[in-house]
Request: fold
Amino acid sequence: MDLNYLFYRHQVSLVRAREASCSASRHAHQELARNYARLIEKDRADRPLGTSHPARLVRPAHTFA
Reply:
């Protein structure tokens, strides 16, 4: 997934939570921000150090049946 999109949506959710006029809206936007943060962390964890793309697990050709 595009990290820039996730970071953008995370920031938008934080701003909307801060500016919410009621607690239900604030809670909903805070939950969205938490979920975007989880997706960002998952995406980062799937990337090898020093790369900008997720790791691709490829089975060596000699292991195919």
